[in-house]
TrEMBL record:
Annotated family: Belongs to the DinB family.
Originating species: Belliella calami
UniProt keyword Transport present: no
Keyword Transcription carried by entry: no
Alphabetical keyword list: Metal-binding, Signal
Protein name, as recorded: DinB family protein
Length: 176
């Protein structure tokens, strides 16, 4: 558990630094971001649907996260970071409960993405611009939004590679 927390924090810091530069040069409106967010939710659900039930615990290496763990992790991080750094309310989602079926995993994805949408959409422009301390760094809440989105994309991409490794065609990416 401590090792996965350290890995998450390290990955988070690297992504935060990369996002800082990207967000400074490429702003989108909240409406545009929310459209992208909904697209990410749909794609994540399609990725979960594509992986057969009997391969939910597949992992390419003993030290890697399983398919289920990749998707659970990206979903849980939406709630954890959203609640911890983006002024999100209590989600009511038990992040300690790990889904054991495809249906449970899809329900978790739905609930976490919906929580993110509700949390993000309440942020004002002033709150988005506000600088906060996050994992030893200073970033705007807008940067944290980008981080969450990039984090989801990263782990969804890993999950897609697991689908391909099993000879299954993953869902097509759609940008809008």
């Amino acid at each position: 558990m401590k090792t996965s927390k350290t890995i998450f924090q390290s990955a988070f810091i690297v992504m935060l630094l990369l996002i800082g530069h990207t967000v400074a040069t490429a702003q989108t409106t909240m409406e545009e971001f929310m459209m992208k967010w909904e697209n990410g939710k749909k794609l994540t659900l399609a990725v979960v649907e594509a992986m057969p039930d009997d391969l939910q615990n597949y992992k390419p290496h003993e030290t890697a996260m399983s398919f289920n763990e990749q998707v659970t992790h990206l979903s849980s991080a939406i709630v954890g970071i959203g609640g911890g750094f983006l002024m999100g309310e209590d989600s009511g989602i038990d992040l300690e409960k790990k889904p054991s079926t495809k249906a449970e995993l899809k329900a978790l994805v739905e609930a976490c993405y919906d929580y993110g949408k509700a949390t993000f959409s309440k942020l004002t422009e002033a709150q988005l611009a506000e600088k906060i301390d996050i994992f030893g760094y200073t970033a705007s809440r807008r940067q944290v939004l980008g981080l969450i989105d990039d984090h989801c994309t990263h782990h969804r991409g890993a999950a897609i590679s697991y689908i391909r490794a099993n000879g299954i065609e993953p869902p097509r990416f759609t940008a809008l």
